[in-house]
Structure formats: structure tokens, C-alpha cells
Amino acid sequence: MLSVKGLVESGTLKDVPSKYAYGRNPEEHISLDEERIPIIDFSLLTRGTPNQRFKVIRDISNACQEWGFFMVINHGVPKKLRDEMINSIESFFDLAEEEKQEYAGKNSLDLIRYGASFNVTIDKTLLWRDYLKILVHPHFEYSKRTREVANELLKGVSRSLGLEENYITKRMEVEVGSQMFVTNLYSPCPQPEIAMGLLHHSDYGLLTLLIQNHLGGLQVMHNGSWVPINPLPDSILINIGDHMEILTNGKYRSVVHRAVMNKEGTRISIGTAHGPPLKSIVRPAPELANPASYRGIKFRGVPRASTE
Length: 308
Fold this sequence. Notes:
Blueprint: H1 4-8, E1 39-41, H2 42-47, H3 50-66, E2 69-73, H4 79-93, H5 97-101, E3 112-116, E4 130-136, H6 141-160, H7 167-171, E5 178-186, E6 198-201, E7 207-212, E8 218-222, E9 225-228, E10 236-240, H8 242-247, E11 257-259, E12 267-275, E13 281-282, E14 297-298
Parallel strand pairs: 1-2
Antiparallel strand pairs: 2-10, 3-4, 4-5, 5-12, 6-11, 7-10, 7-12, 8-9, 8-11, 13-14
Helix pairs in contact: 3-6
């Protein structure tokens, strides 16, 4: 099947083909307010005074409970490295379709998988995106740096729950855990109001770290409205995953979000989803489960890896 990028660049596209047409719920509400998700200064979490660190940990707790998302600034991942990643991903999607098809996986658990939509053979309506997913642990510089950021954030999350700072890292065996690298390319869409890049969903795992190019498209469900998220320059967007919700017995929620389209240009996003080893069964932490509100779930059994 032709990729969405190939479809757009074919020169024959005037309208969105019917198989990509989702439409929108006319009753849904999109916030027009200048709402901004919480901002966490990573440097104060890792190198701040005790009082500064206490305040940041409190802010992490509020962000995880009220939004399920937050932006991290002063995180230490170099801009040059982030730009190189965006450019490398763009170069991959610029390859000829035959070359990209060499990386098309057979199922959702393949270590490398290129594709469009989720399952083009059975989906009735297709998504307006092309993607590349790689299971890493970590094998290149960007994945190492984002893993370092995730590990420090997990310490802050642990402390925000009243637990020892290495609690989540040890209980979830994060040091030998999984890291899914997911990039999405959203080509410009002639009718952005009827196509979708990603439908509303939540992410698996503990934390997802997301960077993107200059174009927005992510929307987060907050207080019954879809809130467009426009990250600050040089920030990394963080969201809570399903397994963090289970681990915290629902104190911290994995929030529904989606990716919408635009006419102006191509949006590229790169997400790294961090979780326990694939063999793990995730249950509520005993210290937070009185009583437990969630049953244990096998990590490998979760099929999604859709980070925006």
C-alpha cells in the first residue's frame, strides 16, 4: 500500500479519500483558552537546593494528577542531537517506498516496524500518518539521553508519591526495561477537519518523552475539552502511561490524547516510551493499594505504541 506521504506527493490528491475520512463529533469541545500544561524545570529537580527540589516534586505531583502531561525544560538533551534526530527521521521517510518496505514488520511486537495506520488490511478507516517503531534499550545516543531524563523523572515521581526515590526504578526493573522509539510523520492534509493522525488513546508504559518539529497537532483531553498543546521551544513533552496509572493505583492518570491534521506542512514527532521488561506483570504498588483498584496486567500484552 502507498504511504500517506506517497499519496500526498503523487500530485493527484485534491480531497481526502473516503477510507481516510473520520469526520469529527460536532458536539466535541476544543478549548480556545490559552491553557498551558505544567512546566517542570529539570535542572532544579536534579541540581536545585532542597527547597527548590521539594517544590519541583510537588509540581510533578500536581501535574500528574491534574493533567497527566507536563513540559520539561533545561533537561540537558542537546538541541543539536534533537535536530539531528528530526532530520534523520525525515531522511528515512524520504526513502523510496521499496526501501522503506524492507522495514515493514509482520506484527506489533517486531523490533522494527514501518507502516501507515495500524492495520491497513482490516481497518475500515485509515489514519493520516506514516510511522517507524523501534524497540531499543538504548542503542544510540538519543535513546541513552532520553532514558537518563526518564530515570530522573521517575525518581521525582516516586518522591511525589511519598516513596523512596528509587522505588519505581527498582520495582519496575527500569534499568533492564523496555524503551520503544516511535516516530510519526503527518503529511499536510487537504481536509484536516475530516482526517485524523491518531485517534484518541492513552499510551502504555510508565512515561513517554516526546519531541517534534515546529508544527503542532497534539491535543489532550482536559476537563472535558480538547486542549491543543504547543510545547515551549527546546522543551520535552512528558505524559503518564497506562502502567504508571496501574502502579499508582489510579492516583496518577494516563490521559487520553490525539493527533489532528493541518494543511500547512509536515509534522514530525518522536516519542520514546519507557516501561518495565516485556515479561513483567504490572500491579498496584502495595504501599498505594488500600484496596487495589486495578488487576495486574502483562506488559507485553499491551498492543499500542502510538506516541504522538
